[in-house]
Write a structure and sequence with these properties.
By secondary structure, this protein is an alpha+beta fold. The protein has one domain (3-146): Gcn5-related N-acetyltransferase (GNAT) (Aminopeptidase). It has helices spanning 14-31, 89-105, 119-124, and strands at residues 3-8, 47-53, 56-64, 74-80, 110-115, 128-129, 134-136, 139-146. The strands form 2 sheets. Strands 1-2-3-4 form a 4-stranded antiparallel beta sheet, sandwiched between helices. It starts with a strand and ends with a strand.
């Protein structure tokens, strides 16, 4: 069972911050070979949703308030541990992220910048593609919106 925790940046313990940065680094930098800066000064205004199991961070998203990255609230830095893949943790993470975003920011549309290969996954959650394909850090992305 995954224990979900949501915290503002200033509420994170140093151990939680280390774990989430380590997971983001493991997947985005090492696994996806993306050698671009992960820390972009959007962590500070964000809410951080973490899914823990047996003392290990398995899943994480960063929830940005409206007006931070775009006009709408947004969900980003969506990541699941390689050890948790295929377990349903990714779907549970996104469903929880949507619910928490609506609770925090109200019933507003939610925007994401999705890696193109995940189009079908995000569409299954109700997101609709709203942009052409673009490159972000050398990876094909699309913008998507959940009404």
């Amino acid at each position: 069972m995954i224990n979900w925790i949501i915290k503002k940046f200033d509420e994170l313990t140093v151990h939680e911050l280390y774990a989430l940065l380590q997971l983001r680094n493991e997947v985005f930098a090492v696994e996806q070979n993306c050698v671009y800066p992960d820390m972009d000064n959007k962590d500070q205004p964000a809410f951080h949703l973490m899914g823990w199991q047996d003392g290990k961070l398995l899943a994480y998203t960063r929830l940005l308030p409206p007006g931070t990255a775009c006009a709408e609230p947004s969900i980003g830095r969506v990541v699941t541990s390689p050890a948790a893949r295929g377990s349903g943790a990714g779907r549970a993470l996104m469903q929880r992220s949507i619910d928490v975003s609506r609770r925090l920011f109200g019933p507003l549309p939610i925007k994401i910048g999705a890696q193109l290969y995940l189009h079908r996954f995000y569409s299954s959650l109700g997101f609709k593609q709203t942009s052409d394909v673009y490159l972000e850090y050398g990876i094909e992305h699309i913008e998507m919106l959940l009404a």
